[in-house]
Write a structure and sequence with these properties.
This protein is an all-alpha fold. Helices cover 72% and strands 0% of the residues. The chain contains six helices and no strands. The chain is extended, with a radius of gyration of 26 Å.
Length: 137
């Protein structure tokens, strides 16, 4: 009769206690994930209005569920010692940051707020600069 280790070795193909090297996990970046989403959005754009509205309602409901789940998770984790440092580190990941921003769980950074403000006035700055150049000629 085989002992447990011999049985395990014959079934798994290597000695018990010996760990095979784990393959490196390749995680998709934000750009790749967004590319997939944009491709699906382009597909839905060609659908009739009722189908597109159904997909949009599903997206809103799914987003609300995720926002509530992440909000509760963050609220619960904040109670643990050292958790704020870990949360701040996690938010440094571009995918985590993008999702939490999309769900409006975290506010835009100062840089993003400045860029938004500049975007709103940039057309006026171009017109003003053009008028100034015209008046000087």
């Amino acid at each position: 009769m085989n002992n447990l280790a011999e049985t395990m070795n014959s079934k798994v193909g290597h000695k018990v206690g010996h760990q095979e090297p784990r393959p490196v996990e390749i995680r998709p970046g934000l750009d790749a994930l967004l590319k997939d989403i944009h491709a699906l959005e382009a597909l839905v754009a060609g659908w009739n209005e009722q189908q597109a509205n159904t997909v949009e309602a599903l997206r809103r409901a799914d987003g609300a569920l995720h926002k509530e789940a992440f909000s509760r998770l963050i609220r619960a984790v904040k109670q643990a010692p050292g958790a704020m440092a870990a949360l701040k580190e996690a938010v440094g990941d571009e995918v985590v940051y993008a999702v939490l921003r999309h769900l409006e769980i975290i506010k835009p950074s100062l840089h993003e707020r400045v860029e938004q403000a500049l975007e709103s006035v940039r057309p006026f700055l171009v017109v003003t600069a053009a008028m100034w150049k015209w008046s000087r000629s």
